[in-house]
TrEMBL record:
Recorded superkingdom: Bacteria
Keyword presence, Mitochondrion: no
Keyword vocabulary terms for this entry: Membrane, Transmembrane, Transmembrane helix
Transmembrane segments: 51-72, 78-99, 120-140, 160-184, 196-216, 245-262, 269-287, 293-315
Protein name: MFS family permease
Amino acid sequence: MAGDAGPDDAREEALRGLVEQGVLSGAQAAAVREALDAAEPERSGVRWIEVVGYLGGGLVLAGAVVLVGASWDELTRTLKVVLLAAVTAAAIAAGVLTAGGVRDVAGSRRHRVPAVRRRIAGALFALAAATAAFAVGVALDDHTVLASAATGLLVAALGYAALPTVLGLLTCAVLSVIAVLAAVEKIPDEPEPAWALALIALGLVWGALAVAGLLAPRALGLGAGATIALLGAQQPFYGGGVDVAWGYTLTLAVAVGCLVLYQRERAWVLLVAGVAGVTLAVPEAVWDWTDGAIGGAAALLLAGAILILASGIGVRAHRRRSPEAPRRS
């Protein structure tokens, strides 16, 4: 184990020294860590160990589901909750042990945990969030979805805070959407665009956390925020009961916000979200303004033309934001 930790510790000391000398900022050092982790080739033996670990965990989980499912209806509610709580605790403990112990998990933001162990532990923490949500759903009769999603989100957020992983971040994003939608549903006489505005607000929160450097990978956090906001803006088109003008107006506003933020953050996900938002909003607006007079083929042509135009503008914006490539003599 010591041999594996040596290079990581030496790299971290070098990066910390560059930050202290003012050569790199904290955000730049984090970006360098991510790039080095992505570029570092993994040994085939380590890769197979990871695959075996996933397969073993999947088989254990499947076996437990089959075993419990055979007698699930015969169990009392208390016993069901106890079993699910035990699985949650076991998954958390296994995740901590996989990461190398509490001390390594506590220092995970300094990349003390190797990448393979980090991914396996992240999967275990995500499993713990799911079983915790299920346990609360079984225990409660009322407010089941809201309480379940909030509990799962709390467990997932704690796991992500202890050990940031891609799967952990995605788990938090999904559970946060479920929790917000369930909370809005509990509002008596909710205004028609409440669901859309709630999801857009949630997307803004995710974007703010990513910009503040609290989410890693940073680009994934920005992408999650943009995706959630766009889903909220499009809600009037599939939620019903809301004027569709809300839909394309909010979608265009979110798209413009992503493009403006892209001028500050060099994250391609913001550019993609902005282009996608414009491509959705303009044909929807034209369709609404003409009362559907344009046919399906015309709508597709219009959407395609807008996509090409928006993509061209996006590429030009990306080139302006990117450093010029050195010219060959």
